[in-house]
């Protein structure tokens, strides 16, 4: 089975059919003679580095442990996106109003999240490696803080052209997601890092002009991922109401941010 090599800084996952046969411990005593005929085992947690022995793994752990967690985030992220693909498609349709507008061509969905082990104990177990703090829609031409760099990287002319082609072919377009991992809520400025590469979903189904959007998609999305809303609850609680105004959405965003930070600070 190929080893997946992950670069957390770039958010890129490579499949290596013939990974380099080398022990990750720099001072490994076997390096000079090589590892021919010796089986190297991957780290059980991140599956990104190999060792020739338990002794080398133990010696390397103080140096590897920080990277190990970063690698695990990337690995979990890809699995998480696949698992929740169905939900993210619903989020894209709701947040970008893809059935009745062309907002998908001009906006991106930002999702702020933290490790689930940072969630307050009173919330009970979180069935996801990540805890959703808040979500919002942001214009692609936003120039606030470092977001413009991220957005320009994903909303390339080719990517936007693909979205237009999907729409011209009868679909809804290509939705862009940026996931931001909150390292430290109370630093000034807040320590927020973009988690891996941005995610895109192509909505090729035709739009439904009569579609009526739900009120509060952010809360429903977070509730499902955080294990507080079941699919049955979603079916009962999603009400078809008029779309929120921009002022309403900005007010909801600030309320969600405060609620999310309060939850984390009480843990």
TrEMBL record:
Cell cycle in keyword set: no
Cross-referenced PROSITE patterns: ZF_MYND_2
> Is Transmembrane helix one of the keywords?
no
Read off the InterPro entries from this record.
Znf_MYND
From the UniProt record, which GO molecular function terms apply? zinc ion binding
Record domain MYND-type: where: 25-68
The record's listing under SUPFAM superfamilies reads: HIT/MYND zinc finger-like
Record's keyword terms, sorted = Metal-binding, Zinc, Zinc-finger
Q: What is this protein called?
A: MYND-type domain-containing protein
Tell me the lineage of the source organism: Eukaryota, Fungi, Dikarya, Basidiomycota, Agaricomycotina
């Amino acid at each position: 089975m190929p080893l997946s090599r992950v670069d957390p800084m770039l958010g890129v996952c490579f499949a290596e059919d013939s990974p380099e046969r080398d022990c990750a411990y720099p001072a490994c005593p076997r390096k000079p003679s090589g590892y021919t005929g010796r089986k190297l085992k991957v780290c059980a947690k991140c599956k990104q580095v190999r060792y020739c022995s338990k002794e080398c793994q133990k010696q390397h752990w103080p140096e590897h442990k920080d990277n190990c967690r970063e690698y695990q985030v990337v690995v979990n992220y890809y699995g998480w996106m696949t698992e929740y693909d169905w939900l993210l498609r619903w989020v894209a349709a709701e947040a970008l109003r893809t059935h009745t507008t062309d907002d998908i061509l001009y906006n991106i969905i930002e999702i702020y999240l933290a490790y689930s082990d940072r969630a307050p104990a009173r919330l009970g177990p979180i069935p996801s490696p990540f805890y959703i703090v808040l979500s919002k829609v942001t214009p692609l031409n936003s120039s606030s803080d470092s977001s413009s760099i991220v957005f320009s990287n994903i909303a390339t002319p080719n990517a936007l052209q693909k979205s237009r082609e999907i729409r011209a072919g009868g679909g809804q377009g290509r939705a862009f997601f940026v996931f931001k991992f909150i390292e430290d809520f109370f630093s000034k400025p807040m320590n927020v890092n973009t988690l891996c590469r941005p995610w895109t979903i192509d909505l090729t189904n035709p739009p439904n002009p009569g579609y009526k959007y739900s009120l509060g998609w952010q809360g429903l999305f977070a509730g499902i991922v955080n294990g507080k809303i079941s699919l049955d609850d979603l079916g009962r609680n999603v009400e078809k109401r008029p779309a929120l105004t921009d002022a309403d959405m900005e007010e909801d965003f600030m309320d969600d941010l405060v609620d999310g930070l309060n939850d984390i600070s009480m843990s």
